[in-house]
Amino acid sequence: MAGIVPRLAEASVERKLRESPVVAILGPRQSGKTTLAKRILAHREAAVRLDLERPSDLAKLQDSEAYFRLHREKLVCLDEIQRRPDLFPVLRSVVDEREGSGQFLILGSASPELLRQSSESLAGRIAFVELRPFLLPEVEQVASGELHRLWLRGGFPRSFLAESETGSLDWREDFIRTFLERDLALYAPRLAPERLATFWTMCAHEHGQLLNASRLGDALGVSGHTIRAYLELLERTFMLRLLRPLHANLGKRLVRSPRLFVRDAGILHALLRIASHDDLIGHPSRGVSWEGLVIEHAIAAFARWQPSFFRTRSGAELDLILEKGHRRLAIEAKVSSAPRPTRGFWSALEDLGITEAYVVAPVDEPYPLAPGVAVLPLGELMAWAPRIAAGTPHPAAGA
After folding, report:
1. Within a 13 Å sphere around the CA of 259, how many CA atoms are in the beta-carbon half?
2. For the stretch 236-256, what's the b/e string if a residue is b when 16 or more beta carbons lie within 10 angstroms of its beta carbon?
3. How far apart are CA 46 and CA 296, in angstroms?
4. Of 17, 64, 66, residue with least CA distance to 39
């Protein structure tokens, strides 16, 4: 596969530029934010882009107000905005002076919470779009049958598009090293990269498990407070996901700890030293690796829904619950080509009164499992997600 992979987020960015003065594309390093921004700017006659990692571009902002005034009729793109958080108050004054939508497109490799000044200084003036690494519908626009490649290599463009599995793994290992040694220094300059590297690898071995901060702290020789700081840093730079448990008053003993996931499957496999499909097939983490892939895709597909998981002390459990208003959907991930949900799955559906559920597995075609419950390939879930979100169940669910 070669060339540019169209991104699903492009339409959302274009729409928000028509509606909001400032649009922020946020996502992990090397997820394709700059490439997407260049595509968007290419459609405009008047646009300018500054890369805040380049000294020559930074020099242009010594008098930032004068620079923005000079380009007041253009869409100004600021790449890697987290390197100049002091610009946010300036952006606010410029936006309020100029009025109108589509003034600034800013790109950042940290969450709005980590870029606090953006949400505080630009409240009511900024819209956010998260750009994830490649999703299955994006790569299958270019070539079909890419699921197993995406699962092994993950969705970071240079990893996915590498000429060989060895080249892909080399890129991911370099990414991990650079991320730890350079990028995180912006947010935690006193943090030893070696210690965080060990912690990240420990998280990979805990992928899909309930978070036990005390156990991680004991193993690393640090306090629970330090572990929480590490988790927050990696979560807010899009490397980890803490999936919170559903809060439900059922009169049952519920698990209260979040589940820990490495968000990109390729990064997970690099941390676990899974180099090939053969390694993955025989690895004990294969099942939770698939689960993480499904969960990330489902959360992306149902972007406005609240994600959580459900587990009781007696064994009832669901991998992912998606909530919006009074609606609840259940998603279960099974790596088997003939998936059979456990008794705990059926018990959880009954406990929560969920009547629509999807078991996502590496199968060739969808089929019904029970009234309201369907087995779907991952690509089918993604394709049907807009209709499911709008209230039309997949035909195989029989609901």
Report:
1. 22
2. bbbbbbebebbeeeeeeebee
3. 36
4. 17
- Residue 196's H or E segment, with its range, is helix 193-205
Cα dist. 126→14, 25, 70, 86, 378 in Å? 14, 11, 22, 16, 33
Non-local (6+) Cβ contacts of 115 within 8 A are: 24, 26, 81, 82, 85, 108
Please report the domains of the chain, with CATH numbers, ordered by start residue: 9-130 (3.40.50.300), 136-397 (no CATH)
Q: What is the bridge-based pairing of β-strands 126-130 and 47-51?
A: unpaired
CB 315 within 8 A of CB 341: no
| Segment (H or E) for 42 | helix 33-42
- Smallest CA-to-CA distance from 352 within 317, 324, 325 is with 317
What secondary structure letter does DSSP report for 19?
H
Indicate whether this model's pTM tops 0.85: yes
Residue 227 tokens read as: 């572990």
Q: How far is CA 17 from each of CA 103, 113, 129, 197, 203, rounded to the nearest angstrom?
A: 8, 22, 11, 38, 37
Q: For each of the chain's 399 residues, which pLDDT tens digit applies? A: 545 788 999 999 999 999 999 999 999 999 999 999 999 999 898 999 999 999 999 999 999 999 999 998 999 999 999 888 889 999 999 998 888 899 999 999 988 877 777 778 888 899 999 999 999 999 998 777 899 999 999 999 999 999 999 999 999 999 999 999 888 878 887 788 888 999 999 999 999 999 999 999 999 999 888 899 999 999 999 999 999 999 876 656 777 899 999 999 999 999 999 999 999 999 999 999 999 999 999 999 999 999 999 998 888 899 999 999 999 999 999 999 999 999 999 999 999 999 999 999 999 999 999 999 999 999 999 999 999 999 999 999 975
CA distance 284 to 295: 19
Cβ density class 270-303: b for 16+ within 10 Å, e for less: bbbebeeeeebeeeebeebbbbbbbbbbbbbbbe
* Rounded distance between C-alpha atoms, residue 18 and residue 9, angstroms: 15
